[in-house]
């Protein structure tokens, strides 16, 4: 039964990882990493992302302005840009490697060891992609919490709050780590189920050799 469910687990792992990679790319370009709701003007909501700041008006209009300089950004946004690019790149490479390592793919059907290595490397890349997606999102969330409860800032000054992109990024990291874990579990299950078969075949060969020696005059 384990061999029957193995392709299903592989497909589930790569589909979950694909969902996480798409969400990670979406998180990178969403401008809603931080939201600023002005109490004096409730008709406007300011949002900030890795690339631009936007103003959302109640009428449905949205105006955005790109950041002029990379070096002028806060350190958490600068590092978040780099980490999110690394997460998207490693996730894409993981999809390519694990895709060629699937058992349902007819390419390289006789090279099972190479396909296992591709699945293993793909699963590890998904782990790396998930971690590098969670780290910048959590860092920005931590700095937002610190600024929100900073007693040195007067109460009349508006505070930044969590944006929707942070929750999308956490979900993306979780999906990538889960997908990589499913792929690596299929590799471990094949090794566990193949080892008893190997020992049984070896034992049967030993018994045949003993019978041959006994029947000889």
UniProtKB/TrEMBL annotation:
Gene3D superfamilies: 1.20.140.150. Pfam families: PMP22_Claudin. PROSITE patterns: CLAUDIN. InterPro entries: Claudin, Claudin_CS, PMP22/EMP/MP20/Claudin. It is found in: Cell junction, Tight junction; Cell membrane. The chain crosses the membrane at residues 12-30, 79-97, 118-142, 162-183. It comes from the Eukaryota. Keywords: Cell junction, Cell membrane, Membrane, Tight junction, Transmembrane, Transmembrane helix. Its main location: other. Claudins function as major constituents of the tight junction complexes that regulate the permeability of epithelia. This is Claudin.
